[in-house]
Amino acid sequence: MDFFFYPSSVALFGSFREGAIAREILRNIVEGGFEGKIIAVNPRGGTVEVAGKTFEVRDRLDEAVDLAIIAVPARFVPSLIDEIGPLIKGAVVISAGFSEVGNDELERELIEKAKKHKVRIIGPNCAGIFGVHARFFGSFEVRVKPGGLALISQSGAFGGAALAMGNEEGIGFSAFVSYGNAADLNESDFLEYFADDENTKAIALYVEGVRDGRRFLNALRYASRKKPVIVLKAGKSVSGAKAAASHTGSLAGSYEIYRAAFRQAGAIEVEEMEELFDAAKAFEMYPKAGRRVAVITNSGGPGVLATDRLEKLGLEMAGLSEKTVGELRSFLPPQCSVKNPIDLIADADYERYKRTIETVCKDENVDSLLVICVPPIFVPSREVARAILDANCNKPVIVNFMAGELVRDGVELLEKEGIKNFPTPERAARALHWLSLRS
């Protein structure tokens, strides 16, 4: 399926009037920096100008391309696929008005025409796709920066919101696919594809329901063996399942069955969007982490909150060795607690954080570290951030900088160096929990 996410040429079908979906997708592709061939097609012809480039609108496709993106009225889609089928490898059908509104026959006709020409279909009723590392933004959703997360979303609107939230959270993406009604390619196909995609480090899946449970379980198991798969399941309640069925024409099924399937396959299930991105942030930094955690903090309260949540999640507070305790006592002020959690007290500076992290990191009883910073106004958060970056530690370090504006400089420095911040002790603890599930 490389021709979807790494295409060398694309044809867009639809209206190119101001505000029309095809025009907005064309704008996204051009502004995103796609270097392949772009062809605009509409029977009326003419020209269209977007992002400083002018395209001649052809009245028909007359040369082979990797991919077609189709945003024409639903009733015209099957005949269009029949016409251009010999010239394309795949098509992304944005158009709605198929099985999701009970128009099953039209959807069947679409797939029959596609199969006739050996064309693969994403959609219909979808929001498009991104191949971020190919600088291909074949969707009307907000563009994202390159990274390691592939987002597979049954819902286009959820996908768009998730991309925007990912930008705010500093997530880098390898790809995005909104697959809508899944008339041809579905979540199982994309799980298998991204499991083998070298630019993808983790996979996030938003799913309402699947049609082929056995295939889905096999694909989920295959992908989970290769990299973290984070799943957010919608339609868990009876009413939610009914809503999911009317939304994308899928069978939502019993949540308990899905829950068991996720566990059996080794996928990581999250409950909400915030958790999905926290998990993605964790896996963008580290492939896994052990269960024994050392907490380093300059404030007792957040250290206690982190401890409570870690233990509730089934992680262990690491028992520090006598050697580690002795070394900590040798340089920390007597007011500091050298038990786990280690409290460096409010005036902890660069040197205190750095030496503590390095000392604790060497302890064989410690698998990972959770470093908390609630800086007083006289210790710049950037100083503590620099200590974390400079510390010689080869174990996973999850960071919780608290207090909004006070920590902004420190958080920006960390994120510039690839260290993500988790803004509460509980969210930082959950990040370590998800990493531990892969160890």
UniProtKB/TrEMBL annotation:
GO molecular function: acetate-CoA ligase (ADP-forming) activity; ATP binding
InterPro entries recorded: Acyl-CoA_Synth/Transferase, CoA-bd, Ligase_CoA_dom, NAD(P)-bd_dom_sf, Succ_CoA_lig_flav_dom, Succinyl-CoA_synth-like
A Pfam family this chain is assigned to: Succ_CoA_lig
Catalytic activity reported: acetate + ATP + CoA = acetyl-CoA + ADP + phosphate
Assigned EC number: 6.2.1.13
Location of the CoA-binding domain: 4-98
Protein's UniProt name: acetate--CoA ligase (ADP-forming)
Organism name: Thermococcus celer Vu 13 = JCM 8558
